[in-house]
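Two entries, shown back to back:
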Amino acid sequence: MKAKYMRLIALSLLGLTFAVGAQHWSSDPYLGQQMDGIRLSATTCPGGGNRPFVIGTRADVNHCIDVDFRASCPGPNNAYAEGTLRNFVGGASCYGDSQEINPGLMTCKPEDMKVWVTNMRYCN
């Protein structure tokens, strides 16, 4: 009985450790609010050689966050690109708060791309 009880405690603590280590944006009120409020888009930037860049807006900048995104073109070819905006401030500017997209098989103009947040976390 004692061994069974000790195993149960050990498994409970192990589960708690994994849950804390894998904290997701949905379990944090601030990150959840950010997830709902961030708006991303693709554009070309001056001096960027007509390459697509992701920019965006963010209403509240109380904490440093990294934002993962996915960009795709409309249509059935299912091509997409993923990336991360590190230390995202949300100034909607090509100067310092943008990330170049490797378009790969995407053939649409940056202005036609759909870009959305896939994950976020506090900066390390």
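entry 2 starts here
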Amino acid sequence: MNNQFKYKDNGLSEEHIKQICRFSDRPYVKGEYQRMQGYIQFKIWHKRQMDKRDALIKLNCKKLII
């Protein structure tokens, strides 16, 4: 399993992020968008890691029963 999380920047400039916030009627806070994207990416990565671990455990339990 890959145990290293790596944040992948989506390449949006600060000006682009400001426009996204403006059109979605949300206040712009510098760095908030990147922080939330990093958190979301981490949660998705972590869920996948946990699913892989659970699948291996389940597979090993089935082998022990048989």
